[in-house]
Amino acid sequence: MSIFTSRRTAGSDTTALLTSGDDAPLLELRGVTACYGRIQVLNGVDLVVPRGEVVALLGPNGAGKSTTLKVATGQHPVASGCVHVAGRHVNGVKPDALARIGLCTIPEGRGIFRNLTVRENLKMATFAGTSEEQVIERAVARFPRLGERLDQMAGTMSGGEQQMLAMARGLATDPALLIIDELSMGLAPLIVAELYEIVAGIAHEGVSILVVEQFARTVLGVADQALIMQHGYVIASGPPAEIEAELSAAYLGANP
Ligand SMILES: Nc1ncnc2c1ncn2[C@@H]1O[C@H](COP(=O)(O)OP(=O)(O)O)[C@@H](O)[C@H]1O
Ligand SMILES: [Mg+2]
Q1: In the structure, which protein residues have their CB atom closer than 6 angstroms to any atom of ligand 1?
Q2: Are 108 and 116 in contact (CB under 8 A)?
Q3: Atom 3 of ligand 1 has which residue's CA nearest to it?
Q4: Span 40-58, mean pLDDT?
Q5: Which of 28, 67, 165, 204 has a CA positioned 20 to 30 A from the CA of residue 39?
Q6: Alpha helices, DSSP H only, in 59-188?
Q7: Which residue puts its alpha carbon closest to atom 7 of ligand 1?
Q8: Per residue in 16-31, pLDDT tens?
Q9: CATH class for domain 2-102+191-254?
Q10: 42/229 Cα distance (integer angstroms)
Q11: For the chain, domain boundaries
């Protein structure tokens, strides 16, 4: 994948995707289908994340949200349809190559190492070429609470602080697109609101964000666009105010 390695190598400016002149959406899924074994769980998903926007992907449990993220980040194969990143066809491109060109995923459950300290977790982000000192400095500037906990085991922090750590680690690589699966899972509403304020700030700095939520409507307050998925289909998409009105129907429909 020479276009990727030539655009972005370890230690180089990692915002290549964001700053590249072309205005194709950062991420675009067209008619994507995906299967687990012989069971098809995505039935033709269309999704676009324009540059600099926050897109919310909502839907009940089992709708196919996480699978959509896995397909977008190269962690699950596309059966048919296309995935484009910054206008380039990336079906079959490996997750590490997509990470190098600026996609960063925070998986469901946050993907932090509970038995390592905050500092050690942050250290992992140095793989992209940023020094440990810089990674920690940036993390603490954005999330001052992490600064007080650098030597604490990550697993002993509150859920909200763990999500902050996951976001700090992801942002240390200077992603063009931050993808977060179930940001609010297990967190109190006040903490969710606080995290979404941070998300809005990150978006304001020019990072595009695709965030999956099952129930949290808080995301609609910061999203530019929202989609609802059900049974592997996108059943609604549009401005957050419109989508909010459709949410109840989608959930009632999913749980008769
Ligand atoms: N590893 C897997 N193996 C088999 N089926 C899976 C696997 N992961 C998810 N599924 C199925 O795919 C469908 C979509 O799952 P998922 O994308 O995780 O939905 P969501 O994130 O919206 O809850 C569900 O029916 C789920 O049971
Ligand atoms: Mg999921």
Answers
A1: 36, 41, 59, 61-67
A2: no
A3: 36
A4: 96
A5: 28
A6: 65-72, 95-100, 118-123, 132-142, 144-147, 159-171
A7: 36
A8: 565 555 688 999 999 9
A9: alpha beta
A10: 10
A11: 2-102+191-254, 111-173
User: What residues sit around ligand 2, an ion, with C-beta below 5 angstroms?
Assistant: 65-66
Of all residues in the chain, what percent carry a pLDDT higher than 70? 89
DSSP code for 1: -
121 CB burial (10 A radius; 0-12, 13-18, 19+): buried
Q: How far apart are CA 8 and CA 101, in angstroms?
A: 6
CA of 64 to the centre of ligand 1 (A): 6
Distance CA 205, CA 72 (A): 23
Phi, psi of 47 (to 5 degrees): -155, 135
- Closest approach atom of ligand 1 to CA 66: 21
Which atom of ligand 1 is found nearest the CA of 69? 17
The stretches of the chain forming alpha helices (DSSP H) are 2-7, 16-19, 65-72, 95-100, 118-123, 132-142, 144-147, 159-171, 189-204, 240-254
Predicted local distance difference test score (pLDDT) of residue 46 = 98
Alpha carbon of 15 to ligand 1 centroid (Å): 32
Residues 6+ apart with CB under 8 A from 42: 32, 33, 34, 64, 67, 68, 71, 79, 232
Q: How far is the CA of 82 from the centre of ligand 1 (A)?
A: 20
pLDDT at 181: 96
Grouping H, G, I as helix, E, B as strand and the rest as coil, residue 79 is coil
Two tokens, residue 22:
């072309």
pLDDT of residue 15: 47
Strand 54-58: give its sheet, edge to edge: 103-106, 177-181, 208-213, 54-58, 225-230, 233-238
Residue 195 pLDDT class (50, 70, 90 cuts): very high
